[in-house]
Amino acid sequence: MLVTQSLQPDVKAFFDPETWTFTYVVFLGKGSPCVVIDSVLNYDPKSGRTATRSADEVIAFIKGEQLELIWILETHAHADHLTAAPYIQEQLGGKIVIGSQITHVQNVFKDIFNLSKPFSADGSQFDCLLKDGESLDFGKLSLKALYVPGHTPACMAYEVGNALFVGDTLFMPDVGTARCDFPGGSAATLYRSIQKILSYPDETKLYMCHDYPPAGRPITYCTTVGEQKKSNIHVHLGVSEADFVQMRNTRDATLEMPNLILPSIQVNIRAGHFPEPESNGKSYLKIPLNAL
């Protein structure tokens, strides 16, 4: 697989330490159109209060660089943080985008949370649903969607120039790969999706959605295809699909659910919007007992 785009993007990364999440602004110099990938809405699970500290940093940068926000992208419906997409859209415009298979995830969690009308599991909460191989333009740059399911059934990576924003498919080589035990996840599917990514040229830059560094290493968000093939502790060259599946399934069986999975999923399958307010004007999230 060849990366053919000649223009290479500028990438500004923002790190949210509470959720270990990276948000990216991708652009082509001051005053250009841009996209935002995987934004974060701050959430306190003890009080149920939200805040916009992380998103405001992104907004301030976009305004400071006089950028025009065109697309607000999600790599998937995150289970570890709430998206700030609607807040950023309200401040700067742009359209909210996710992979078209989000409808599968919505249908799974519609049952888990017993969601009824007005929730629709048809992706209509988002402004744009991307299919594998489809592209979106923003100024002189173009973004191409790469379907990489496994962590969830709806994961997308996004290719811009010589860069791939890989979501939760891969972590830094010394951390490994994403878990596959959420509803609709599959270790075998993730292995095949990772092979798609590793088929890109070795020099292709890979931007992570998270980093969970071992002791002594600073937070890092960018690696390359070549480095992953050489050093990824879970899926370097020579690791077979069967070996990967056995490792991933065994490891996943020991992991606790993410701290924010219940609030995150309910909000993120709604494109970041809160549930409809009830008769007292307040929105509520559900906690399904013994469901996950």
Tell me the layout of helices and strands.
Blueprint: E1 10-16, E2 21-27, E3 33-37, E4 42-44, E5 49-51, H1 53-64, E6 68-73, H2 85-92, E7 95-99, H3 102-112, E8 128-130, E9 135-138, E10 141-147, E11 156-160, E12 163-165, H4 187-198, E13 205-207, E14 222-224, H5 225-231, H6 241-252, H7 261-268
Parallel strand pairs: 3-6, 6-7, 7-8, 12-13
Antiparallel strand pairs: 1-2, 2-3, 4-5, 9-10, 10-11, 11-12, 13-14
Structure summarized in a few sentences:
This protein has 292 residues and is of the alpha/beta class. Helix content is 24%, strand content 22%. The model has no long low-confidence stretch (mean pLDDT 95).
Strand content: 15-25%
Q: Nearest-angstrom radius of gyration?
A: 18 Å
Q: Kindly give the count of domains.
A: 1
Span of the ends, CA to CA: 38 Å
Task: Please name the fourth-level CATH homologous superfamily.
Answer: Ribonuclease Z/Hydroxyacylglutathione hydrolase-like
Backbone structural class: alpha/beta
Which sheet architecture does the biggest sheet show?
A: 6 strands, mixed
Strand order of the largest sheet: 1-2-3-6-7-8
Shape: globular
